[in-house]
Design a protein that fits this description.
3 helices; globular; alpha/beta; 3-stranded antiparallel sheet; single chain; Rossmann fold; Pept_C14A; 245 residues
C-alpha cells in the first residue's frame, strides 16, 4: 500500500522520485497554427526544475496524435511501485470545440485534454494508486482575453500545521483521486505563460504570474496589450505533497 487511509502526507521515500514526462510541441502540420518558438526554452526550464526535484525527465517533441497516445499508454503499463509519483507536462496550442469541450493540439491533430490523465486512474495503472499524479498544461483554453482589474497592494499570511497519522487498513479510493491538474490559464481564456522555473507552491506560482506578468504588444491593438494570465488548478489530492531537496 502506497499510503495509509488517514495519512496526511503522501510518501516520498520510495526508491525513485518518479518520471516527469514532457510533451513539447513546436511545429504543426496544420499551417493555420503558428509555430511555438518558445517550446525549446520552456522545455529546458521544465527539465531543470524537475531534475532538481529528483525526477527522471523524458522529453518528447512534436509527437503525432497516435504516438502521443501510445506513449501515455506505455507509461501507464509500466511498474511504478518504486516511485513516489508521476508528472506529465504538455506544451502546445489548445482551444475548445463547438460543444465546449477542451482539446489540445499534437503535431497532426487534436486530442481531448482528458487523454493526459485517463490512463492513470487506479484501475488502469494500479502501481500509481494512492500516489500523486501531477499534470501541467501550457496551452490556450479559448480565445477570450483577460484584461484584469486594478488592486491595492496588501499582505496576508496563513500558516497550517498538521500531524502525520498513518494506518494500514484497506480502503477504497475514487478513480480520479490523487490528481492535480494545473493549466497556465483560466478556463475560457487565451494565452499561456511559462517564463520561469522557480520551485514554488502552486498558489505562489498563480500569484506570481497573475500579479507580476502581463502581455506587452506594443504597436498592436489595445485588445492585445497588457493582458493578464491566471494559472488555474484543479486538485483531487487527498494529502499534503512536498518534495525534499
Amino acid at each position: 500500500m502506497s499510503v495509509g487511509r488517514d495519512a496526511l502526507f503522501y510518501k516520498n521515500d520510495h526508491e525513485r522520485r518518479g518520471q516527469a514526462i514532457i510533451f513539447a510541441h513546436e511545429k504543426f502540420d496544420d499551417l493555420t497554427l503558428s509555430s511555438r518558438e518558445c517550446a525549446s526554452h520552456d522545455t529546458a526550464i521544465s527539465r531543470r526544475a524537475f531534475e532538481h526535484l529528483g525526477f527522471e525527465v523524458m522529453v518528447h517533441r512534436n509527437l503525432t496524435k497516435a504516438n502521443f497516445e501510445q506513449k501515455l499508454q506505455e507509461v501507464s503499463r509500466q511498474d511504478h511501485q518504486a516511485s513516489d509519483c508521476l508528472v506529465v507536462v504538455f506544451m502546445s496550442h489548445g482551444n475548445v470545440s463547438c460543444n465546449n469541450k477542451e482539446f489540445l493540439w499534437t503535431r497532426d491533430g487534436k486530442v481531448d485534454t482528458s487523454e493526459l490523465w485517463k490512463n492513470f486512474t487506479p484501475d488502469k495503472c494500479p502501481s500509481l494508486a494512492g500516489k500523486p499524479k501531477l499534470f501541467f498544461i501550457q496551452a490556450c483554453r479559448d480565445e477570450n482575453i483577460d484584461k484584469g482589474v486594478a488592486m491595492k497592494r496588501h499582505k496576508r499570511s496563513l500558516k497550517v500545521q498538521t500531524d502525520s497519522i498513518s494506518t494500514q487498513e484497506d480502503y477504497v479510493i475514487p478513480l480520479h483521486a490523487d490528481m492535480l491538474r494545473m493549466w497556465a490559464s483560466y478556463p475560457g481564456v487565451d494565452g499561456a505563460w511559462q517564463e520561469y522555473g522557480s520551485l514554488l507552491p502552486a498558489a505562489a506560482v498563480t500569484r506570481e504570474v497573475a500579479a507580476q506578468y502581463d502581455e506587452s504588444c506594443t504597436g498592436q491593438s489595445d485588445l492585445l496589450h497588457r493582458n493578464n494570465k491566471t494559472p488555474y488548478m484543479g486538485s483531487t489530492l487527498m494529502r499534503h505533497l512536498y518534495f525534499p531537496v
